[in-house]
């Protein structure tokens, strides 16, 4: 069995929250990420989904080295990638890069495309003008832009073209892992499919591994090999994309899937109905059934991820009274 490219084990990220008392009295701790773990194989797309504030972005920032974990380990190719023994910022940047959500805000409006793409190359020791020019031209061609467009500024491009530039900048150092932070949410619907297809083509061509953060479950379903569902800093369900979308087990996952716009709703059928007769995993119960209950909050009771099918795990909690 091939070793994972990236391994995250028992990751915790906590933030102190100031209280309202005198001299900081009443300080509390925010458990942003609470003991999650996953791995990422070469050429795989792993998506992390969940509502705002569930810990998705904090997890991604920890992988990028932009957020220091409170506990836990992150390993890249079997070597520490965070904490003692981890490589420096420059070395991490060659292994992991990021495509940001807003393609305009992430580009310097005062720099041409050529300058933006050349900067990371120079920072990492590429000084020959001919090599820089060749790599920029090749990278632009790979994302569907021309070398002539390299002399333009961000405001001269459409939103989809700007995102192509952002992708080119992320890939110019030839990383193995790319974090995709809502890569198409800021784009017009008519452009999203083009960018998704571009990302899939680049993944196949370059053997890239994607760690995608997204609220758009239709994008997740189209791009992902595996999916992690996060709720209040924990992974509540994980599995292959087909397992998550066709046989969701956790109540929270079911509510997420049911929230996807459903053409059948026009015929008077509610999306939740497709899960109504689906049995819960045997052996334990959930604190609440999110398919019917108004509140899916699972109290912090002892729980664990249990494998209910090969590669499909769900976090079960002791059932409540009655």
List the helices and strands and how they pair.
Blueprint: E1 6-17, E2 28-40, E3 45-49, H1 56-64, E4 71-76, E5 79-80, H2 89-95, E6 96-99, H3 113-123, H4 129-142, H5 159-171, E7 177-181, H6 189-206, E8 209-213, H7 217-223, E9 226-231, E10 234-240, H8 241-246, H9 251-258, E11 304-309, E12 312-316
Parallel strand pairs: 3-8, 3-9, 6-7, 7-8
Antiparallel strand pairs: 1-2, 1-4, 4-5, 9-10, 10-12, 11-12
Helix pairs in contact: 4-5, 5-6
Short account of what is shown:
By secondary structure, this protein is of the alpha/beta class.
What's the count of strands? Answer: 12
Helix/strand-derived category reads alpha/beta
Strand order of the largest sheet: 6-7-8-3-9-10-12-11
State the end-to-end CA separation: 45 Å
Largest sheet: 8 strands, mixed
Mean pLDDT across every amino acid position: 85
Output the radius of gyration: 22 Å
Share in helix: 25-40%
Bin the strand percentage.
15-25%
Give the topology string: H per helix, E per strand: EEEHEEHEHHHEHEHEEHHEE
Separate helix tally: 9
Low-confidence stretches: 282-302, 318-322
Broad shape: globular
């Amino acid at each position: 069995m091939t070793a994972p490219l990236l391994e995250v084990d028992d990751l915790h990220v906590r933030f102190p929250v100031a209280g309202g008392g005198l001299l900081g009295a009443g300080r509390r701790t925010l458990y942003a990420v609470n003991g999650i773990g996953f791995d990422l194989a070469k050429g795989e797309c792993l998506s992390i989904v969940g509502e705002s504030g569930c810990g998705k972005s904090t997890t991604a920032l920890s992988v990028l080295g932009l957020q220091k974990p409170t506990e836990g380990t992150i390993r890249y190719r079997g070597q520490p990638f965070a904490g003692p023994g981890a490589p420096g910022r420059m070395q991490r940047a060659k292994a992991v890069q990021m495509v940001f959500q807003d393609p305009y805000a992430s580009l310097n409006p005062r720099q041409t495309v050529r300058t933006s793409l050349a900067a990371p190359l120079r920072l990492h020791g590429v000084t020959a003008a001919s090599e820089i020019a060749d790599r920029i031209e090749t990278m632009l061609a790979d994302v569907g832009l021309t070398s002539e467009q390299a002399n333009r500024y961000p405001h001269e491009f459409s939103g989809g073209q700007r995102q192509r530039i952002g992708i080119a900048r992320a890939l110019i150092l030839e990383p193995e892992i790319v974090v995709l932070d809502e890569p198409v949410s800021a784009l017009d619907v008519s452009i999203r499919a083009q960018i998704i297809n571009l990302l899939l083509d680049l993944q196949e061509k370059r053997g890239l591994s994607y760690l995608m953060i997204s609220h758009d479950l239709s994008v997740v379903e189209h791009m992902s090999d595996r999916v992690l569902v996060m709720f209040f800093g924990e992974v509540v369900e994980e599995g292959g994309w087909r397992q998550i979308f066709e046989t969701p087990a956790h109540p929270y996952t079911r509510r997420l899937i049911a929230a996807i716009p459903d053409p059948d709703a026009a015929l008077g059928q509610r999306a939740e109905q497709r899960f109504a007769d689906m049995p819960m995993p045997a052996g334990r119960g959930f604190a609440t059934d999110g398919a019917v209950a108004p509140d899916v909050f699972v109290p912090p009771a002892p729980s664990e991820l249990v494998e209910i099918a090969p590669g499909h795990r769900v976090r079960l909690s002791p059932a409540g009274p009655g």
